[in-house]
TrEMBL record:
Protein name in the entry: EF-hand domain-containing protein
Any matching Pfam family: EF-hand_7
UniProt-listed Gene3D superfamilies: EF-hand (1.10.238.10)
Species lineage: Bacteria, Bacillati, Actinomycetota, Actinomycetes, Streptosporangiales
Limits of the EF-hand domain: 54-89
Coiled coil: none
Length: 172
């Protein structure tokens, strides 16, 4: 497995909270609701609703293109395929943008350290890996990263062929 697929597998494994070998809509929704709760965002607020809608859109897009046996769930091989440069703008970028908006609680254009780590923990990553990931991104050591850098990270994480920020999320 190359570095990119290792990262995608790490995401797949933490999102597959019931460890049944398949990603299902409930896995993504559970993680999304955990992130919203842990960030202390009102679930009825606009950023929370936009984020949940983007999760639904992301899932619908994945399943409609990839669920070849129509069982409503995705194996890792099915899940990994749409994360390509051609599919990213329509299938994945809206999710990245809504997550950035959600995590920028005070809407100042930056994602603060604590909010980034909270979101990473909500997805299901271990704290140590989340902290290392954050330190890789906060190159100016300000304790916050611009949302634009967050979006670049998200794209690189899923698309870069080589090792990139966030490789520490891959378990040894
Ligand atoms: Ca599952
Ligand atoms: Ca399937
Ligand atoms: Ca902020």
């Amino acid at each position: 497995m190359d570095a990119r697929h290792e990262r995608i597998k790490a995401v797949f494994d933490v999102l597959n909270t019931n460890s049944n070998g398949y990603l299902e809509s409930i896995d993504l929704e559970t993680a999304a609701r955990r992130i919203i709760r842990d960030l202390g965002v009102d679930p009825g607020s606009a950023p929370a609703r936009t984020y949940l809608d983007s999760i639904t859109g992301y899932w619908t897009s994945l399943v409609s293109e990839l669920d070849q046996n129509n069982d409503g769930r995705l194996s890792f091989d099915e899940f990994a395929r749409p994360h390509t440069p051609a599919n990213y703008p329509s299938a994945v970028r809206p999710l990245a943008e809504s997550l950035a908006q959600l995590c920028d609680l005070d809407q100042d254009g930056f994602i603060e350290h604590t909010d980034f780590v909270t979101a990473a923990l909500g997805i299901g990553f271990p704290r140590a890996a989340a902290e290392t990931f954050y330190a890789e991104l906060d190159t100016s050591r300000e304790g916050r990263i611009p949302t634009g850098a967050f979006l670049t990270m998200f794209e690189n994480f899923l698309l870069a062929e080589t090792r990139t920020a966030g490789q520490t999320l891959v378990p040894n």
